[in-house]
Fold:
Amino acid sequence: MATLGDIGVAATINILSAFAFLSAFAILRIQPINDRVYFPKWYLKGLRSSPLQTGTLVSKFVNLDFRSYLRFLSWMPAALQMPEPELIDHAGLDSAVYLRIYLIGLKIFIPIACLGFAVMVPVNWTNKTLEHSKLKYSNIDLLSISNVPLGSNRFWTHLVMAYVFTFWTCYVLKREYEIVAAMRLHFLASEHRRPDQFTVLVRNVPPDPDESVTQLVEHFFLVNHPDHYLTHQVVNNANKLSELVNKKKKMQNWLDFYQLKYSRNPARKPSTKTGFLGLWGKTVDAIDFYTSKIETLKKEISLEKDKVMSSGKSVIPAAFVSFKTRWGASVCAQTQQTRNPTLWLTDWAPEPRDVYWDNLAIPFVSLTIRRLIIFVAYFFLTFFFMIPIAIVQSLANIEGIEKALPFLRPIIEVKVIKSFIQGFLPGIALKIFLIFLPDILMLMSKFEGFISRSALERRSATRYYIFLFINVFLGSIITGTAFQQLDNFMHQSANDIPKTIGTSIPMKATFFITYIMVDGWAGVAGEILRLKPLIVYHLKNFFLVKTEKDREEAMDPGTVGFNTGEPQIQLYFLLGLVYAVVTPFLLPFIIVFFALAFVVYRHQVINVYNQEYESAAAFWPDVHGRIITALIVSQLLLMGLLSTKEAAQSTPLLITLPILTIWFHRFCKGRYEPAFVRYPLQEAMMKDTLERAREPNLNLKSFLQIAYIHPVFKEVEECESDPASEESDQEPVLIPTKRQSRMNTPLPSKHSGSMTSLG
Amino acid sequence: MATLGDIGVAATINILSAFAFLSAFAILRIQPINDRVYFPKWYLKGLRSSPLQTGTLVSKFVNLDFRSYLRFLSWMPAALQMPEPELIDHAGLDSAVYLRIYLIGLKIFIPIACLGFAVMVPVNWTNKTLEHSKLKYSNIDLLSISNVPLGSNRFWTHLVMAYVFTFWTCYVLKREYEIVAAMRLHFLASEHRRPDQFTVLVRNVPPDPDESVTQLVEHFFLVNHPDHYLTHQVVNNANKLSELVNKKKKMQNWLDFYQLKYSRNPARKPSTKTGFLGLWGKTVDAIDFYTSKIETLKKEISLEKDKVMSSGKSVIPAAFVSFKTRWGASVCAQTQQTRNPTLWLTDWAPEPRDVYWDNLAIPFVSLTIRRLIIFVAYFFLTFFFMIPIAIVQSLANIEGIEKALPFLRPIIEVKVIKSFIQGFLPGIALKIFLIFLPDILMLMSKFEGFISRSALERRSATRYYIFLFINVFLGSIITGTAFQQLDNFMHQSANDIPKTIGTSIPMKATFFITYIMVDGWAGVAGEILRLKPLIVYHLKNFFLVKTEKDREEAMDPGTVGFNTGEPQIQLYFLLGLVYAVVTPFLLPFIIVFFALAFVVYRHQVINVYNQEYESAAAFWPDVHGRIITALIVSQLLLMGLLSTKEAAQSTPLLITLPILTIWFHRFCKGRYEPAFVRYPLQEAMMKDTLERAREPNLNLKSFLQIAYIHPVFKEVEECESDPASEESDQEPVLIPTKRQSRMNTPLPSKHSGSMTSLG
Structure:
């Protein structure tokens, strides 16, 4: 078991590495050449079109102003300066609310830590149980519940503290739910006119032998919503078309690459081979080859497009139906249309950018079957993922490699390399799996048939959290794979499960402290460095970029990444709540994580990430629910722990805690969740009335007519109108975005002033 | 363990007692004097106003037509004759669908029993495990799974049969859900104009210092549903008024009693005492005393009524809001009105008869707290109800009685009486508790705040089912109180629970066979005799009845009693499904129960029960869900049983069964449940259009104006207009009912012909 000294060493190492990351970031970000890597958000918003320094050629690439190196931590206060309303305006509500998760962490754990250190530490410390026992123990254990003797009356302190911590957490959660719900409603109410406010997505339009889908939809809504129906757009199956467009884009990239090569070295015309990846086949002139390929594809695309647009066959039984008023859309989205609840399914249309087009056509029965399949698949993934990895590990040993690839033997037999491979190889399969896990989960969600990208992310996040809970949290406490745990639990009584886990919890405190420092502190500091986008940007910049627009494409701002980020934050909530009563010594480490992460992610949200859609904080009920889950888990584990400490008289008081917590959750669900699911009629009516008064002659139909068109059509049209451009504009025209920064940089906004002083 | 012979004896006894009940019924029902006990439904429908025989004075009371005694089982085919659509017309959809539950029992278990006897019985019988073992066993056990040797390959038969039975049950359930959903929608669509089709119940109207509730409601709906709002009625708190009315009714009963007594014996004026129950106090003239009491109450009632009607203080923050169209009401009921989802709660208004008025004013926070309290109370009721009963039992022993009431000693010491008391006393506390249990559960549901009587019954039924499952089913299998079970389960592994129960299941087959015969066969036969209503009717008839109208009041038709009846049926489904694979010998007993109960209850529904409200089969999702639960329980127990039989290789196949069943349940829930919860807009629009075409000048407002008035006001008005009458008309005027059979008997309907031949 680690002593306080060990932890000190680990802390020093991690603080130093975090500090190294931060310093590297501070130096790299003020180099003009990296400007587009560390400030892409401003470029995308059109508020910046080139690094701010002007001067000699050298100073275009390297920052020579040495004063700026002295202010290398200046980004931190700057990141905190922008007030929240401006942040919402700048980066969207999703990002702003996402940052609030870190704030909640601080709000919950700072008072809990203070109380814990003031009350629990003295209570635990002033015992001599561990001293008198002959167990090996560390200084940290002296501060933990392990140091309290069996059957001691001091456990009442822990019980009271569990109540206090629960009430405090619930109080913070309730307040936060209230604030976020109000923020969401305010955001929806104060938004500009958006097509999704008037539009409902209708799925499972029943087939009709006499009428086409578009006629059917029109007739149905003219009959059943006569006063409100305005127009509709059918959805085309454009999967093949987007495939072709993607293919053409890839070809264009190669063409650019060779053209650039040629222009740099006009002496030698670049050539390529026609086979796979250009590795074999006939050698041809590369530029001619790709130019002709692109021409062929262009023709195919325009043919396919005509086919999709003209023939009714590619129309899928779904449509975006628009209404004259928000009231009408709100009514249609919340009601059932026909006797058969699996036909004419109506939902709020997601924002156009948020639609996941591939899933719009899945019928009801198929959906339920897909859900079953994914449930089973996920179960096996969570509990049995170690089996294929163990197989790969057993295959991928040194002898196996030497046998399969004998020519590598001389290299492998070098001692340093051998020991490196032996140490590294077994872990690599697991590491690769863990890296790809979020993508696997996302694929699962896609297969399950959600229709918006925000819903996909939310579902993936839930699954990822469960995976982390079982395989990281429980897996670290009761060492063993998830399947072994499952087997254990099946053979244990319901009473014994919290006991087993509860008793090993205090012993794992030092492990989790190290985990927090490595994953939390150093990980977050690494995030701000953006090593991968930095390298990719410079590679692209060198090989592909010809115009400013290409350079813009080469930027990869990324997004907050709800589906990977949030479950990891939740793990810290879980650790904090579980250890709050048991080993309060762990709390400061979590507080440092939350504080550092808050600053770092706030900086990233302001300067880097470009959220691809706006769900208006629709994920908050999930966040709330998972913190509640963590709270209940912590209560059950405390119950298990205390029951082994011969403090059984406290059990009834402990049982009421989870019951009260569940009740609190249900209360919050009833009180606040509807704000995230439904759209109140009063709000809709207010906005409608206001709009009618302000713009009595508004032509809503033309506004809505083309709002929901498959993005690939827009891309194709752009291609056709401007053959030199292969700009992929994922957003439809109507969403107010300034992504095309070709336009002149507008006047700096009030906050861009504060930002420019950073650069 | 009971042998086949024992079961034969038990069967004989129960068949004989059932037969005795049926014979008694056959004789009693054709006596004209009992006509109102056994055919109240016809009186209430106004299709019958006196027994059908006419003749001498004697034949008014006793049936002298000996031929009719020969046809004493003729009611059975008669009960089956009425076709279902006519039954719906006659007794309502609720009753007709309730009878389908018995039919489902037959549909599920007849094929299962045939297959079970054809396949399982030979497979089980042709083993010699029990013969070779030295265990005591009965003939029935030879037919059960106990007779198959450990690790035998024959268990594959049981496995395959479990699959076949599951698929068959699911098939029947799905078909039935489909049919019932269609029946419900057809019923709703083909109904006459009813106020609840246009009306929405709004609760939690927020308080406003400037406006009264009625103004607030009007303004809110005029703004937010401008095209559809028609009118509204506020709800008054009339609890005190109904108390007074009830008190007056009781006084009137006493007055009638004494007046009748006086008219029969004019020599002696009846007197009463003013104290409690007329037992002590000053002796006064009874008729004068009660007349003056009633006069005082009348004044109080009219005062209270004026107070309630005029002052705004008794208005509670809830209202029935009516719309111009069904479409408008449907929209309002399914949508959220304001930002705060706990204010302006809109739900479909229940039928006026179905409204539970006392609960309309409970605010949201109070509702969630009440739910928590009831959850805890119900938990303790289910698991700890034996504690107070055991205390009562320990107090109520012979010695205790002798000590408390020493003057009873000579009587108690008589041997016969002593042994009788000793045998009877311990059980009586439990018996009384079980008799009052449905009422206790109903009180709990009322406290929980449901707003319709049908919802109250549904919730009580769920609770009763869980109680029966834990205390009767599990309690009989692993003997011990529910609390001991809970304690056992807490200390057992999750794997072991199904094992413990599964292994004792085959041994309990004979017990459950006896249970089915006593509770099912004899119980159902006893139901048709209606002993309690028979006695009460004749008592009332003798002491209170003066006019025909009084006689009508003395009838107590009762209702189907969903909250007590359905959970008991569900117990048979559970037994049937659990034993289908284990001991198929039990199935014929269950089939006999379902067949007998179907005939008996069909007779009762046609001739006796008077359903007090119509929920249009809103209970079906509950029924379906409980049969699914029984199916899953049976699968888990089979899994436990087979795992002790060393047939572990079948476990993976068995685990998939409950997963598939749960998936099937979710599929059905998505596909059919909305028909029971929501009202599709297409249907509403169709009915609206039809109505507009047929009756363009309909004055809907006057139709809806008084539909939802607290029933006590109507009673009061009736009292005032007709002081001699205390007819309690629970139904508002607008519901088409012919309850006042004072009117001349109309022409017999087409089916009343077949019924009169029964009498």
About this structure: The mean pLDDT of chain A is 79. The first strand of chain A starts at residue 199 and ends at 203. The radius of gyration of chain A is 29 Å.
